[in-house]
Each structure stands twice: as C-alpha cells, then as structure tokens.
Write a sequence for this structure.
C-alpha cells in the first residue's frame, strides 16, 4: 500500500480555550482537524477529571490535526498564540497517510 | 440562638444536605462513585430551567413594580463591589498572588445558583416565600463580578485592554441564557404555563436537587482530596468569613429595599455564595494564569458546604430578626 509522510499535531488544551484555538487555526488556513473530549489526567496544574463537571472550566480537549510538513509552522505559530497562556501540551509526531491530496 | 441551632440541625438532616455529604464522603473515601459529565449537565439544565420558570411565573402572578427594578440594580451593584471586599480580605488573610486573588474575588462577587436553590428549599421548609424576581436578581449577579476582577488585574498590570468577544462569551454563558430565558417563558406563560408542566418542574425538583448535590459533593470531595494542600489556613478562614461579610451586605441592601423576610434571606444567600459554574469558565479564558485549583477548591470545597450546612440557617435567622418576619 502506498503511503505518504505527514505531520500529526496533537494539542491538549483547556476546554474554555477551544473556540479561540479553532478560530486561530481557521485564520491560519487550517480547517481540517478533529476535536475529542479527554476523560481526565494529571499534570503540572494538578489532577482533573470530566466526571461530574457542570462547567467547562475543569475540562480538557484534544485537537488533532494531520497536515503536510510545509504547513506545520503556520499551524504551530497560530496555536502557540492561544496555547501559550493556557494549561496544555502541544506535540508533533511523524505519521503516514494514505491519500496525500487530502492534507 | 436556640432557633438558629434548631434550624441548622433540621437543615443538616435534610435529604438535600445528606446527599451532598454522601458525595463528599464517597470522594474522600476514594469510592469509584461518579456522575457522568453529561448527566451532571442534564441535572443542572433541569434545575436552572425549573428555578427560572418558577420565578418568572411568580413575577407574572405578582406583577412588576419599582422594588423589582431596585432589587435588580442592588444585585448588580453588590456583584460589582463584593470582589473588591473579597480582594482586600484575601490580601490581609493570604499570600495569594494578585492574579489568584483577583480570580478568587470574582467568584465571591458572583453567585452560586445551587446555593440559591438550596436557600429556597430552606425557606419553604420554614413556611416562607420570597419575591419571584429573586431569580432574575441571581441572573443579574452572575457577571458584574468578572468585570471587577478584570479591572483589579488591569489596574495592577497597567493594561486596560480586554480581549475582543470576551464579554459576549461571559454574558451569553449557557447558565445565564437558560436562567433568563426560562424566567421570561415563566413570566409570559404565567400560572397556566406553570400548571401545565408542574408535574415535571415542581414535583421532582427536590429529588433532582439531591442528585445534583450528590455530584457537587463528589466534585467538592475530590477537589479537597487533591488540592486542599494548596489552601493555607488564611484561605480557609477567608472561605468562611467572606460569605458572612457578603450576607451582611446583602442584608443591608434588602433592608433598604424593604424586601420580605424570604427576599432578604435570598439576597443574603446570593451575596454570600461563590460561583463555581460561570466564573471558573470565564476565568480560564480571561485569567488563564490564575490557578484553578485554588479558586475551585475554595468556592466548591469550602464556601459551598459552609453555606449549605451552616450559612443558610444563619442567614434565615438574621433575616427574620432584621425584618421582624
């Protein structure tokens, strides 16, 4: 099977910042991504869990975006503006995709 | 004094408070009991809709008068000013940073709708009622405190700029929209509207409140278990002192307005309560540098249980004494 190299960016960020992050990504021309709720975790800011939360304040989300490597800097610059002040993690990994023209 | 103790004792063994206690105990004992996020949100939507609708129907029955407008304005002023009192108290009692203190202060100017709902059940068990528009007052008091906290921070930083769109997000927060919206529906449809859905929003109300408070107890207990070490003795003293200070400010406003005993008790409760739904979300956007573990644990782990167990009977006793009700 023919595969093509791509970059997989995962941004885990506080749920209240979701709208800002998505807006910044859209402004940078990134309009293909997946948002997932995150069940819970632990980090520098302590433990947290989605269970029982009424407010979005304690929730985290995961935004995953797969794109060509030449578009990576645009996404990271846009994301950093939002992520910098918030609790969260940004990671970039190499991956392979099947249909290169979609990225 | 005996009256306050009897009220407090009766309040402590009510299903609502015992449900909260069960949640706290389960969390502290590390039980795997949880309320799924979606269920917790559904319970909160039900409570907000029911309380808003019932308040609107009460206003429809009693009409709109100058006292209603005065109470709304008083609520707005209380919410805007209480963060300054809280901020000053925090500076005296704790060594929190300016950002953390401002974020905490915003919570104590805003309100907890569940404390308000618990206050109405305490009133009902004492055979008292309150002005229906106290629900609208609760909605008005949600947001001004956030502005005050942001002003406290901007004054410290010399930065007056506010992020575009932030106010839209704060004012259109889901809990405010639902509370105001259901209040309007209740006011428009009146008693007939309430009668038509009473079997849904009146009869099951206390049972749903019990489940919601079970969840609040679980969240508060988990917060205390994992984050209590972040709170020093000064912060805990603040968590029980500030509600008393706020309640007295609410009482002063209620007496100026000539509210009923029930109305005075609810305005005291609103002024004494600390937000844990609308303000934490706003703070994560507006002041992400503030530590959420501090303000959430203080609000939900210290002040909320204090108000629920001891505060409400005290506010009712004081309101009765002050209004002669």
């Amino acid at each position: 099977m023919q595969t093509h190299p791509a970059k997989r960016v995962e941004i885990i960020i506080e749920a209240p910042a979701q709208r800002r992050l998505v807006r910044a990504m859209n402004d940078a021309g990134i309009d293909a991504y997946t948002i997932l709720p995150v069940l819970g975790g632990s980090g520098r800011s302590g433990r947290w869990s989605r269970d029982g939360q009424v407010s979005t304040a304690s929730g985290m989300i995961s935004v995953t975006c797969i794109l060509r490597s030449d578009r990576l800097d645009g996404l990271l610059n846009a994301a950093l503006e939002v992520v910098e002040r918030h609790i969260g993690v940004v990671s970039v990994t190499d991956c392979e995709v099947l249909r290169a023209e979609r990225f | 004094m005996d009256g306050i103790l009897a009220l407090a004792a009766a309040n402590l063994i009510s299903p609502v408070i015992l449900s909260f206690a069960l949640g706290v105990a389960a969390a502290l004992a590390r039980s795997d009991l949880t309320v799924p996020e979606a269920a917790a949100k559904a319970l909160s939507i039900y409570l907000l809709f029911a309380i808003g609708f019932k308040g609107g129907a009460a206003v429809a029955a009693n009409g709109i008068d100058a006292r209603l407008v005065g109470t709304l304005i008083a609520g707005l002023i209380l919410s805007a000013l209480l963060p300054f009192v809280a901020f000053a108290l925090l500076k005296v009692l704790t060594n929190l940073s300016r950002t953390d203190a401002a974020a905490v202060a915003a919570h104590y100017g805003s309100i907890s709708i569940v404390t308000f709902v618990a206050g109405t059940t305490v009133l009902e068990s004492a055979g008292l009622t309150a002005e229906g528009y106290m629900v609208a007052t609760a909605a008005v008091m949600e947001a001004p405190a956030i502005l005050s906290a942001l002003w406290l921070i901007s004054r410290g930083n010399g930065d007056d700029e506010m992020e575009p769109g932030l106010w839209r997000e704060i004012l259109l927060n889901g809990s405010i929209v639902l509370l105001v919206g259901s209040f309007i529906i209740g006011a428009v449809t009146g008693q007939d509207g309430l009668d038509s859905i009473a079997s849904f929003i009146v009869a099951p109300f206390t049972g749903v409140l019990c489940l919601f408070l079970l969840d609040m107890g679980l969240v508060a207990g988990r917060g205390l278990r994992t984050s209590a070490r972040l709170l020093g003795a000064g912060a805990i003293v603040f968590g029980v002192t500030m509600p008393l200070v706020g309640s007295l400010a609410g009482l002063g406003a209620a007496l100026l307005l000539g509210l009923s005993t029930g109305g005075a008790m609810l305005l005291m409760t609103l002024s004494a309560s600390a937000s844990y739904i609308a303000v934490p979300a706003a703070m994560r956007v507006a002041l992400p540098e503030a530590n959420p573990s501090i303000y959430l644990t203080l609000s939900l782990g210290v002040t909320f249980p204090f108000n629920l167990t001891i505060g409400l009977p005290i506010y009712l006793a004081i309101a009765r004494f002050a209004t002669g009700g």
